[in-house]
Each structure stands twice: as structure tokens, then as C-alpha cells.
Amino acid sequence: MNLASYFPWKKHPVITAISALIVVLLIWGFWPQAVYVEAIAAKRAPLTITIEEEGRTRVVDRYIISAPVDGVACRQQLDVGDEVKQGQVLLGITPLESQVLDPRSRAQTRAQVAAADSALHAAEQQAEAAEASAKLAVIEHNRLKPLVEKGVISTDAYDKAATQVQTTAAAQRSADFQIEVARYELQAAKTVLEYTAASRGEPAERLPVVSPIDGSVLKVTRECEGPVRTGDLLIEVGDPKVLEIEVDVLSADAVKIKPGMKVLFDRWGGEQPLEGIVRIIEPVGFTKISALGVEEQRVLIISDFTSPAEQWQRVGDGYRVEARFILWHEDDVLQVPASSLFRYQQGWAVFVVENNHAKRRVVKVGRRNGLTAQILEGVKEGEAVVNHPSDSVEDGRRVKQRF
Taking all residues of the chain, what is their mean pLDDT, rounded to a whole number? Predict the structure, then answer.
């Protein structure tokens, strides 16, 4: 018998070869191909959870000096940034011819002088109370210092005592400034009573307007000579060496921030970030329109610098900063990119590369900061996880790492 009857493909070798090639190509075409993926190893590293918002600096105590009487103000010789001393004459006002005060107006003016005098005494009492609180905070801080060194108390209690020292010191400075303001208001009230046609039967002289504090000129409202009315803004002064930072955050984020919390300030102009501490979370929010036209409820967070003054002495009033409120920090955290996580069965999962195959792993996620996620269970240190897994990546699919 002819062997060709047993092996018919030998009669037509070309057709047989073409058929075999087609079969091989079909098998190769439908054979699952390896998917190129980006794999990143799970590692242990520090992880910080922050809230980041833009803020600006401002002078803690600023004074808006207004015209105490109707008159003609002289030309302003001061410029923004000029230093002034307490009691220094900033400008002069030539009062208008005062009207004769009737008995009721004169009695009312005397009552205003008495009220301003009482306000001065009240400010002095508040300053004494603030000074006592500051001394008590220093005593408490000094008492806790040896205890924390011995480990008798926690570090948090010592940090709260240190924060209380700074807070009471700031309150004492503010109370001292309030005394100066009360004195200035008393002087203004006495001036109204003194410079009247009834009390002075002589031509009005130029009334000097003096600075209530040592500081710098922050704003000049009027530069040219001209008439002014009582209460018109003339000049703003303040001490630029005493700054605070105001940051408006979303109300949902404000509830996570607490007084005494650490905050870092970036992009202020220096190479290293400045450190600060949260002093006040204002209890009242306000509505602000975002850049996208969306109404947002925001809250002001007031913070103080804790970095040495020589590091931020070049920062002035109204300077822009980027604040990072430290909500949580851990130095040794097992973490993976947050982009490697995906939803699976009411939880989270990742694809782990094992023997060039993608294996789905259900994981337990802890803290997240937007870019990185803490892994509590499911992945070990050093295992490679697929970053940004596409729809073509499935459990058991062969993958190839992209380098």
C-alpha cells in the first residue's frame, strides 16, 4: 500500500504548510498576551496626614488712626514701612472753628471722657490679670519640666504647658496694647471737650496726631493736605515683628484641627519651611466663592510662628504662605501608592505580582493622604503591587513589568 494513503498531507506539502502556519497564527493570536504594568514595591517609610491651604500673615495688633476732630490735615510726610515711636507726632490737624457746645452736648462730652477713663482703668485691670496668668503659666511650665524629664508625666501635658506659656504671653502683649488704645481714646475724648470755642477764646492751634505704639507705618490713607471729618482714616500703624497667620479652611476640615496642633508653612520665600502652632479656631464660618464658582463654608484658623524670629524676620504683613496642618504622623508605616487600590467586595484590594502573574489581594487600608495609603493587612514589605491597574489586568493574568 502506498504510504501517501496513510499520510495524505505528503501529497500536498504546500497546502499542509500553509494550513499549519494558519493554525499557529490563530493559536498565537488568541493566546493570552502579557500585560505591561508598572509595579511598585510596598515599603516602610514615614507617613504624614496633612490639610493644606493657602494663608497670609497679618500684624497681631494694628491701629487705624483716625481724625479726632474736624479740620484740615497737613501733608503726610511718612511712607509705608517707616518706623515710628510711641508718642511720635505723625501729622497735624488744624481744627475748624468749633461750635459752642450747648449744655446737653457739653454734659454728653464729659460723660464720654468719663467712659474713656473707665475703659482705661478696665484695660489696666485686664492687663494685670493677663500678667498674672502669664506668670502662672511660666511657673507651671517650669514645674512640669523636671517631671517630663523623669517620665512622670506625658510629653503631651508638657507641650500643652508650653503652648499655654505662649498663649498667655500673647494675651499679655495684647492687653498692654489695649491700655495704649484706651489712653489714646481718653485723650481723644478730652480733646473734643478742650478744643471748643466756648472753652478756648483764642484761635485754634494745630492738633498733633501721635502714634500709640512703637512700630511701623502699614498704610497711608491720606498723603495730601486737605479737610478731614471726625473719624476719617488717616494712617495705620502696627508692629510687624509680632505676626500671626490666618488660614481659611473648609468647615469640614476645621473640625479636625485642634489648638496646639503643629503646622508647617511652605513657599513663604525661604528654603526651609517655618514651624508654627495653631492658636485659635474661630467658631464662626463664612461663605466664600471658590475659583470654580462654588459656594464653600470656610473657617479662619489663626496660628503663631514657633520658629526663631530671625528665620522669618523678612516676612511682613499680608505675605502669602502655604500652611500644612499635621493631623497625623508615623515614622514607620507599611505603605503603597493610593493609585494601586481598587474597590472589591465592599472593601479594597490590590494586584500583587507573583511569578509574572497578577494576583488579587484583599487588603485592609489605614490612613491615607491622597498619594499614599497605609496597609494594615494583606501585603508584606517588598512585594510588588500594580500601580494604576487597567481593565485588562485580571486575577491570574500574566503581566510584564514596564521599566
Answer: 82
pLDDT single digits (tens) 256-281:
999 999 999 998 888 889 999 999 99
Q: Are residues 69 and 218 in the same domain?
A: yes
Same domain, 267 and 342: no
CATH number at residue 394: 2.40.420.20
Q: Is the same domain home to 246 and 321? A: yes
Q: Are residues 130 and 188 in the same domain?
A: yes
Between 37-46, 88-97, 390-399, the lowest mean confidence (pLDDT) is in 88-97
- How far is Cα of residue 250 from the mean position of the Cα atoms in its chain? 11
Using one digit for the tens of pLDDT, what is the confidence trace for 4-23?
555 555 666 667 677 667 76
Residue range of the domain that includes 7: 1-31
